[in-house]
Amino acid sequence: xxxxxxxxxxxxxxxxxxxxxxxxxxxxxxxxxxxxxxxxxxxxxxxxxxxxxxxxxxxxxxxxxxxxxxxxxxxxxxxxxxxxxxxxxxxxxxxxxxxxxxxxxxxxxxxxxxxxxxxxxxxxxxxxxxxxxxxxxxxxxxxxxxxxxxxxxxxxxxxxxxxxxxxxxxxxxxxxxxxxxxxxxxxxxxxxxxxxxxxxxxxxxxxxxxxxxxxxxxxxxxxxxxxxxxxxxxxxxxxxxxxxxxxxxxxxxxxxxxxxxxxxxxxxxxxxxxxxxxxxxx
Length: 282
Ligand code: SAM
Hints:
Elements: E1 9-11, H1 24-32, E2 35-38, H2 41-50, E3 57-59, H3 65-77, E4 82-85, H4 98-106, E5 111-113, H5 119-127, E6 134-138, H6 144-154, E7 160-165, H7 170-181, E8 185-190, E9 198-203, H8 204-213, E10 220-224, H9 238-250, H10 255-266, H11 270-279
Parallel strand pairs: 1-4, 1-5, 2-3, 2-4, 6-7
Antiparallel strand pairs: 7-10, 8-9, 8-10
Helix pairs in contact: 3-4, 7-8, 9-10, 10-11
This protein binds S-adenosylmethionine (SAM).
S-adenosylmethionine is lined by residues 16-17, 86, 88-90, 93-95, 118-120, 164-166, 189, 191-194, 219-221.
């Protein structure tokens, strides 16, 4: 393993739930760095103790970054190597780090990113949604006006949308997205890399129904199908298409014909409609 360079800022991803996901290189950088700038030093100490990288922890988070940033820059300019970590996953991604990177670049300090755990991409690759193109949205703003402005700006993006959300807000977020984006296909990826990892696949509405029955617990990534060039009209509810599908079945159309027809009209998933018809076949 290469020695790490003095006067360099390393961005070090850490596990999102499974310590075995710590890469060999991440361990090496934490062991060798002069300083570890951590979002929560108590949290990161568990990791540094486990991987034999004791001491050298300094706090760097949203609430102290104005003072801690320049202090860390001074250490880097004095030739110290600094590893920056957040509580879990990639620094900078919905986590502290972006300002430190900016400061370092302004001072011509080398910034070296390490690849590693990230909840958004981990969820995406097993979601079954289109992973060729995607947009990472992260946490929605909490206030109504800003949230609405954001959803207005992403409604017609023809690519999978990836959101982060806290468990106590997920139902409200599903319902907001359902209203703003229409009843699109969606996947809730829960507790990734942990013992109770679960993928729930359905629509925004069916996920909401599911969560009404069982209170959401743990960490979630929410993925929503892209809008396409002609997004589904937000007015179509699950009841609307199900009763239309049932009506067409009564008229003698086959499940295949019905799913093709309704998917064409609404941009709902042909597979979801087909499966509904097969399950409810008289
Ligand atoms: N920097 C992290 C990353 O690279 O993924 C994200 C940190 S952000 C503060 C925390 C959010 O990431 C959580 O609210 C949740 O939406 C998502 N997340 C983190 N770990 C997760 C996990 N194990 N399973 C599902 N979602 C997770």
